[in-house]
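Per reviewer request, we include the raw input and output of the structure prediction for the construct analysed in the revised manuscript.
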Amino acid sequence: GQTLPSRKRSSTNYVCDLKYMNQVEYDETNQEVLVQAGATWTHVIYKLNSYGRSPVVMQSYCTFSVAGTISVNAHGITSDDAMFNSVISIEYIDVNGKEQECSREKNQELFSLIIGGYGLFGIITRLRLMTVPNIKRTLEYIRTRCFSSIISHLVTF
């Protein structure tokens, strides 16, 4: 399916399959991760776990590509932040086929357009992302026989 309904199908459209560009490198000095476009969040998490680190914003499904997630500026499940907040820099191929780089300091306008730009401003090839220390998350399941009893319990707080 398509994310942008306004995009028209045409015989001149192309699909770029980047799944084999899936290398992930961890920069221990700066505590940043360098991720190729085809890497999934599974690749990133696996690499970062060995350093006790984690992505700043975790996704609900780890099978998404990192570049795809950035292209739509997705939000995560572990914070209220959008992906934009964790991106340090982006390497991409522009509409003329030239390799470029942008960040908050370099080519700022393109940086903000590429994140959430659905690939309209170029093809992301590599990203540098912030990381955070791993933390243990726990979930608690509460059994209830009657939904109304749990609601009335919550209302009394």
